[in-house]
Amino acid sequence: QHKKYVFFINRTGKLISMVIPESLPSVNNKRKWQYVAFSNEEKRIALTKALLKEKVAIVQKIRKNIQLQIGDIAIGNLKQSFYPLIEQMNSISSLMAMDGNINRIIFDDLSAYLDKPWQFKKREFHPPKDEVNAMLSIVYTMYYSILIPVIISEG
Question: Which of 68, 72, 81, 96 holds its CA 20 to 30 A away from the CA of 62?
Answer without folding.
Answer: 96
